[in-house]
Amino acid sequence: MVSKMKKISWLFATFVLLAGCAVSPQAVKLNPSVSVDRMNLGQGRSIHIRVIDKRPVKALGSRGGIYADTALLTIAGGPEEPIRQELAGVFTAYGFNVIDAVNADVTLTVEIEALGYQILGEKFPKVLKNTILLRAICEKADATFTSKYAANKEQEILITPTASQNERTINALVSRALNALIRDERLLKFLQE
């Protein structure tokens, strides 16, 4: 019995060690999801939505391993368009007419200031830290509203997460930050004035 337990422990330790040695790069698909009740906040006014990735490094971070410099986690196709599309759906539900012209009644610019993925620690369990910081600039006529929205998540991990696990985590994180943005009472009041 003791011998069998030692063997199982040794196999588990070997598995964990090997899992941390060679880690491949991953590109996850961003598909944030938020839901809002329909309201006539926009009253048919036009809105132009822009999303700009201001991060100096476009990779979310390293997945670790012995080739940490190349085992990068990225967003397939970039984060701008999936975020813009989700916001377009929200503002359509809010009663705005979403257009691609810069001469819209309202312009909403969302800047991605941070979107990160970091594995911390030398021993197991390690800590996986995910962060996002968005800056919204909403402009209409001669008035401007600016605010920031952040979300963070830390979790202990025994093995490096799979692509599907990373995709779920990143999408949930981005959705939380977008949810804070679209439900910001100050922004909604600004849009009504």
Structure description:
The strands form two sheets. Strands 5-2-6-7-8 form a five-stranded mixed sheet, with helices on one face. A three-stranded mixed sheet has the order 1-4-3, covered by helices on one side. It is built from four helices and eight strands; from the N terminus they run αββββαββββαα. β7 and β8 (143-157) form a beta hairpin. It is elongated and about 55 Å long. By secondary structure, the chain is an alpha/beta fold.
CATH homologous superfamily assignment: Lipoprotein like domain
- Tell me what portion of residues adopts beta-strand conformation: 25-35%
CATH class: Alpha Beta
Give the helix tally: 4
Radius of gyration: 21 Å
CATH architecture designation = 2-Layer Sandwich
Estimate the mean pLDDT confidence. 86
Helical content band: 25-40%
What do we call the CATH topology? Answer: Double Stranded RNA Binding Domain
Listing every helix as H and every strand as E from the N terminus to the C terminus, the arrangement reads HEEEEHEEEEHH
Largest sheet: 5 strands, mixed
Unreliable runs, pLDDT <50, ≥5 residues? 9-21
Q: What overall geometry do the principal axes of the alpha carbons give? A: elongated
What's the structural domain tally?
A: 1
Structural class: alpha/beta
**Total DSSP E strands:** 8
